[in-house]
Fold:
Amino acid sequence: MIKVGFPSHLVQQTVMSGGAEQQMMQIYLRVRPFSKEELSANEDQDCVVIEDGQTVSLNAPKGSANMKSSEKGIGLSIHKFTFSKVFGPQTTQGELFEDTVKSQVFDFLEGKNALIFSYGVTNAGKTFTIQGTLKDPGILPRVLVATFHYMGGHQYKEMDLKPYLRNGAQCLDPDQVKQERTAKMAILASVREEGDHQRTRSSSEPLITSDSCLSSFSSSNNLTVFSGSPAEASSEQFALWVAFFEIYNECIYDLLQPTLSKKRSSLRVCDDGAGNAYVKDLRWINIQNLSEANKLLQFGNKNRSAAATKMNQSSSRSHGIFTMKLLKIEGKTLKRISEFSLCDLAGSERCNKTKTFGERLKEAGNINNSLLILGKCINFLRNNQTDRMKVGYIPFRESKLTKLFQAFFCGKGMASMIVNINQCASTYDETLHVMKFSAVAKQVVQVIQDKHVVSPGPCLVGRDGKPLWRDGVIDNRVLESYLSEDELLDEEDEGDMSLLPQNELLNTIENLRTKLLAERKKNLVQEMEIRKEMGDAMLQQLLESEELRIREIEELKESHAEKLENTFELYRDAIKEHAYQCAMNNLEDNYVPLDEFTAEQEKAERGVVDPAARFDAVF
Ligand SMILES: Nc1ncnc2c1ncn2[C@@H]1O[C@H](COP(=O)(O)OP(=O)(O)OP(=O)(O)O)[C@@H](O)[C@H]1O
Structure:
């Protein structure tokens, strides 16, 4: 039996010099209840046993790959895992929120960044945990309720301060504000119309379907509200902007962008010049109440499932990311920005290389790179932290997902993960894989740098040398005098290089060239491997089909020979029959009754000879 995880005293927060704090990454486990269908399919074989509030053991069922290999003496059939906290099948959505995310919501409201991942195989309860259902709202609606409750009557209604790049904000002129309002109204109106047609929607769908439900959130005992909010007399105001996007097949798609044509256009990940990745041209929408939040969520979910259907894929193959940005404003001055992201990861089983040849061929171009790289990064982070002599390169930039959330692993916010599992015997091997991944993630230490100060973002300077920041926000007039991003970035560029001095640019280009070369080499090797694998598989298939064909021909020959033999027998019998019949017919024709014959003989004896008659009688 193995025991993975750190002793509980290491899970505590530690204050480091310079005000930074370090803490083990919080990994929670949620075990979902069996469905009726699963119980009747005999899926309950005591594979998952919750031992206490932090420990779970997994017992391999008969027939699982894990059991088979343990019978051969490879590995064990029982595994024990520890988590920050384990939530059993009876845990309510409210309890889960209280014990996992609530403290991060506090931090978010106080100006810090937070990221929640839900990780697990398909059908393990990830979406249920993040979004929930109408009756049972998940984490996301609860965070929204808490945020609006916190903002109370201190909402900034102007809409002229908008998130920009990763950590900054931009001043919008009246025309731009008008455009913002129009775009938002178009989405909200489209949801209202569609909502009217969808009254019959099943309550189990992870959507919040009515305004009345949302308003009941705040009053419902079911949902936590926060007592802390700005003092009534305070001049502080808050603006909440949200974005919703998905990463599918290493392409980013905006879920709040109405899809006018059949083909969705993908967005790029850029660098803001301070090493922070952001999604360029992502649509940010300012929301003023829960009802608007609800409609945007519906709009995004609908967009996601419609796209999945079009591509003949399930939405569980993409990562869905809902991000909120809270701007704290005093007068017209931006005081701080904080970010809260909820990431519903794609089903983890997609990473496994257990596909048959045909499926592998189909999915060769679709391997979920982001999930593989996330695992790699977590592994590297853990290794770097446990063996400080061997600090290695962490491949954050190898996938869109890790690029975007790199900051969370580098001291600019807290990330935690909710691991979802089901208890089914048939998916045991996948579940074990998820648990092993979580055990590694749990050992990652996060360092939160200077948690009380949140920078409003990089300081940008225009062409004329004037600072782009005015009172903590980017001045749009100065921005206009600044080189446009398109001037500086060609289509292939990934970073917003305009913000770097020349020598750094040259260094960056050199680094990028080296990385590109390495990347190309790696891709080439990978491609060769895949080609070889496919070639081998094809050859194998050809040999098998050749063998099959020869066997079929042999069988065909045998069956023809048998048929020929039978036909020959039939003919022989028929000829025999025919010869017999002929003989019988001849006999009949030549038959002379005995008395006639005797009379003829007597006649002959008497001397009357009829030669013809005599001849007939004889023959
Ligand atoms: N804690 C729970 N209590 C009751 N039902 C649950 C719970 N968790 C999940 N379910 C139900 O289990 C089913 C699968 O859950 P869900 O769709 O959230 O899985 P998922 O991991 O998001 O799957 P996918 O990756 O395919 O999107 C749903 O019908 C959901 O309502």
In short: Residues 32-33, 120, 122-128, 204, 316, 347, 420 surround adenosine-5'-triphosphate (CB under 6 Å). DSSP finds 18 helices and 22 strands in the chain.
